[in-house]
Structures are given as structure tokens and as C-alpha cells.
Amino acid sequence: MSSPSSSHIPSSFSHGLNAHWQTIYPHLQRSLRSLYRPNKAVLTHLKSSDEDLIPYLHWTDKSRPESQKDLVILSHGLEGAATSDYNLEAATSLHQQGFDVWAWYMRGCAPEMNPGPLLYNSGFTTDLKNLCEQANKQGYRRIFLIGFSVGGNITFKALGEGLKGITAAVAFSAPLVLGDVSDHLSKSFGGFYMKRFLASLKEKIQQKEAQYPGAFRIEKLNTCKDFYSFDDDFTAPMHGFSSAKDYYERSSSIHFLSSIHTPVKLISASNDPFLTPSCFPDPVSYPHMHFYYPNHGGHCGFGHGNESMAEMALDFFRQMTTFDR
């Protein structure tokens, strides 16, 4: 691949009101459109390598065998779901283009709480790897990955850890440096986004405590006022990290980019109110990767008045392969 980088590192970053508008308004639009879009997906469960369950929705063309089809696996963002507006819109668009699509629920994000003791975290790659292994066993011709926000961090980390059998992948608005983003979100927009995420995360800890009484120091929920304190008291011990700092360092996909051998593209807007400059790697330092850093788009707000995120991903997949559909 020659000159894969399609953008330079942004010279400035804007987190003003327009950035928040470009984040929130597209979400509202997609949510509204989803009310009128029939959901033809089927819910399936895959047993994970640690004996938990991975629920996922799939849109499948049963008229053709897997060996004649391409599959796209979608990974949602923090406190999202397989049914998140961006997931459903991408899945519908890609399925209309002839792809089979799987959209999986991270642990704790499905309508029913997962039976195992673990919730997901922003670098938890086990379930995505298990799904890709299953897809390869089923004999799909090609497998593509799309990750949104935290799902993008997980996608790149999994590939950097050696995930095989993937033709190409795209990450949108990925928080590649988790510690920086955690600190930034405690301040961005008066902590608006953080407070919403934190309330949902705390509720899941309470649900998991009901399943596994005594598993957590549940009284600490009352003193968790930001991501760092929550991750220090709950996420880190649950997943075997020594602290929130250790969790952020070992789970940030920025450290895995150099080890990725699959064609990948990072698409992040310089006005993304979730991200920090550290989440925009210099393309010169990663010549094996592709980058697109537009000035507008907010956080996963691409597509308003332009091509959708599914179309942006599909354009890249077409560049990396030859489609015969």
C-alpha cells in the first residue's frame, strides 16, 4: 500500500457548542429513522471461551452459503448496544448492499444481564475474538470489522493482539488513549456525557452484585464521581488490573497500532468532544494504516448531509478488496 494516510494530524481541535450539536443531532436523527425501519435481525447467542454468553443480532441472506458471502461485524460504543442507532443504521445499509451483518452486545449491554461474573471494559477483546473465530468456522468468504467509539478501540486492540482472518477494519471516533479521554470527559460539556455514562455503569454494577452477592465493595458506588474513581474501584479489580491507571495503560489501543497487520482505517473528527489530541496519531508514524481526520462530525456524528458511516466504511473496504456483488 502506498501513501495509505489520507489526512494529516489536525492542527487545531474545536470542542465548542457546534461539536456537541454535531454529536447529538445525528443521534436524534438516526433514532427517529429507526422508528420507521423494520428490524429483520435475529438474536443468537454464542458461548464465549470463558463459558459466558455473547448475544448478537444477525442479518443473514439464507439464499447463499457463507462461502459466497462477506460478513461485517459491528462493535458498539460505551454503554451502547447492538440496537444502538448507529449500529442499526449501518447494519441495514450493509445488508442491503449484500453483506451478512453481526452486531454483538458487550457484556452487560444486552436486554438481559449476562450470566457470568464479568462486565465488559473498553479494552475487553475476548468476545470479539470469539465471534470472529465463529465466523471463520462458518466459512465466510471475507470478514470485515467496524467499531464505533469504544468498539473501535476494542477492534484495533484485538487486531494488534494478533486477531487473524480479518480482511479490513474501520474504527470511528475511537478513544485510543483511555486515560486522557477519561480525564477529558470529566470536564467536557460540564461532564454531561460522563454523568450519563456513569449512572448507567453504576446501575450495571448493582445488577451484577445482585447476581454475585459480595463480589464488589458496593458502598464505594456512592463515592464514584468520575470515570477514574469508578474504574479504580470496580473495572480494574473485576478484570485483574492493579488500578485504573494500569487498566487505561494496558487497554488503550494506541499501544497496539504498530502490531496491526490488517488494513485498517481510523476516522475521527477534529471537533469530537469526546477525544483528546492524543487520540489522533500522526499518520507518518503509522504508514501501514489509513487515517481520515475531517474538521466536522462530532463523536460518531458522521453522515449528516454527507455519506453515512456505513458508506464511508464500505468505500474503504472496496479500496482494499475487489467486490463482485
Would you write up a description of this structure?
The structure is a single chain. With 325 residues, the protein is α/β, with parallel strands linked by helices. It is built from nine helices and eight strands. It folds into two domains: 226 residues, Alpha/Beta hydrolase fold, catalytic domain (Rossmann fold, 3-Layer(aba) Sandwich), CATH 3.40.50; 73 residues, no CATH class. Helices cover 35% and strands 13% of the residues. It has an eight-stranded mixed beta sheet with strand order 1-2-4-3-5-6-7-8, with helices on both faces. The model has no long low-confidence stretch (mean pLDDT 92).
Number of domains: 2
CATH superfamily placement of the largest domain: Alpha/Beta hydrolase fold, catalytic domain
Q: Report the C-alpha radius of gyration, rounded.
A: 19 Å
Count the DSSP helices.
9
Order of helices and strands: HEEEHEHEHEHHHHEEH
Q: The CATH topology of the largest domain, please?
A: Rossmann fold
Provide the spatial order of strands within the biggest beta sheet. Answer: 1-2-4-3-5-6-7-8
Beta-strand content estimate:
5-15%
Give the CATH level 1 class of the largest domain.
Alpha Beta
The N- and C-terminal alpha carbons lie at a distance of 24 Å
Amount of helix: 25-40%
Query: Can you give the mean pLDDT?
Result: 92
Architecture of the largest domain, CATH level 2? 3-Layer(aba) Sandwich
Task: Say how many strands there are.
Answer: 8
Largest sheet: 8 strands, mixed
Low-pLDDT segments, ≥5 res: none
Taken from the alpha-carbon principal axes, the silhouette is globular
Structural class estimated from helices and strands? alpha/beta
